[in-house]
Amino acid sequence: MQQSPPKPTAAAPGRVLVIGAAAALVDALRANAGLHDVEIDLAPGNVTALQQLRGRDYDVVVTDPGTSVVEDVAFTAEIREVRPRTRVIVLAPVTPQADLIAALTSERCDELAHCPTTNQR
To answer: Where are the domains of the chain?
Structure first.
């Protein structure tokens, strides 16, 4: 008698925290989230994001494309204090090359996406 293979257990939904007003990104994530069982939460800024991270575990945090790479790398260190295993994607507006190199060599951000924007602060 041949045994059937074990049924895969349902994985917990992934959780993504998007910081700032990246409406197009959120729309794109939400359009695909149902396909991958992903929950998407929003935070208007870094202070609120840290509060949310203290209360809930996230798989990925996406930084605000309106902040600088320097700010985001520093903020990533704060995220790591609260949630050391959470991956961070830094959305970088037009940034000086030296700042990009510093961010990549800091080993703080997991991904760096260069996204020119007109919404810079």
So the answer is: 58-121
